[in-house]
Amino acid sequence: MFDAVLFDLDGTFADTAPDLAAALNRLRADLDLAPVPTARLRPHTSHGVRGMLAAGLDMRPADPLYDEFRERFLHYYSADICVHTTIFAGIDEVLDACERRGAAWGIVTNKAQRFTLPLLHQLGYARRAACVVSGDSARRAKPAPQPMQLACRLLAADATRCLYVGDDLRDIQAGRAAGMATVAVRYGYLGDGEPIEAWGADHLVARAEDIAVVAGFG
After folding, report:
1. What φ, ψ does residue 22 adopt, rounded to 5°?
2. Is 97 in the same domain as 26?
3. Are residues 9 and 23 in the same domain?
4. Which of 80, 108, 189, 196 is the most buried if burial means most Cβ atoms within 10 Å?
5. What's the average model confidence in pLDDT over 37-53?
6. 10 is catalytic
7. For residue 193, what pLDDT is reported?
């Protein structure tokens, strides 16, 4: 049994794609462009504003208007950060299992703190989490191990006794680099890179509730 279970946020703990897609489509509306279906944007959600602007506007950081559109996107997203966002089915059961067994759980995300904390508060999980590490909490973000190491310090936990759960290759890279066991979730956003089987995760799960079994709580 693990002492702590740590989750990536977007695409692992919460389905944030609908609100991120809505922010992107508000930008497109400003340009008199038709909306892009959320399903088409979903695979890019784990890569944040950079992924959304690339997928929805074919815009990249080298574009001279990138910074302006980035700030407009973030403004729209911040204003309606938790309208359609929901926790993935099965996550509540995993959290309940952690708490029954006396194991800590927390969030380690690349999402900036100014979005992470309000979102978790609105979802109702901020006070339950034993730690919340955002993309700007540590010196480097995932796939570097520093956010995972910070989470261990906050929990006073040994990395080898922690399980990290994510839906992106960089989640698995960060967890492994920190010495944690890792779980890759098939229900997440996954992106369009290497197949999930090639990420090197210790475990693959199709449903969130299976995380409890991997953690030794099932």
Report:
1. -65, -40
2. no
3. no
4. 108
5. 92
6. yes
7. 83
